[in-house]
Amino acid sequence: MMTVCLICAVLGVIISAIVWALGSNSSNPRMAGRGKTGVLFPLAAAVICGASVAAVNFFWDVGQTVG
Predict the structure, then answer these.
(1) Quick one: which of 36, 37, 46, 42 has its CA closest to 12?
(2) How far is the C-alpha of 33 from the C-alpha of 26, rounded, in Å?
(3) Interior CA angle at 23 toward 20 and 26, to 5°?
(4) Which of 30, 35, 38, 40 is the most exposed place for a label (fewest CB within 10 A)?
């Protein structure tokens, strides 16, 4: 699941970067702004996806010591 999430995040960054470049080159500030926003959300999703493994491992270890 994590692999699929990270692949989708990378594709999202690539597509958004293309939209950002097209908006900048065509002097379309709205499209460039959408591209910038589109780059940030997949990056945040990739960070959350990567951090979720550490969080699950942490809480698993805490749960093992409680019982």
Answers:
(1) 42
(2) 13
(3) 145
(4) 30
**The tokens 């997949």 sit on which residue?**
42
pLDDT digits (tens, 9 = 90+) for 15-50: 999 999 999 999 999 999 999 999 999 999 999 998
SS3 per residue for the chain: CHHHHHHHHHHHHHHHHHHHHHHHHCCCHHHHHHHHHHHHHHHHHHHHHHHHHHHHHHHHHHHHHHC
| pLDDT confidence bin for 1, thresholds 50/70/90 | confident
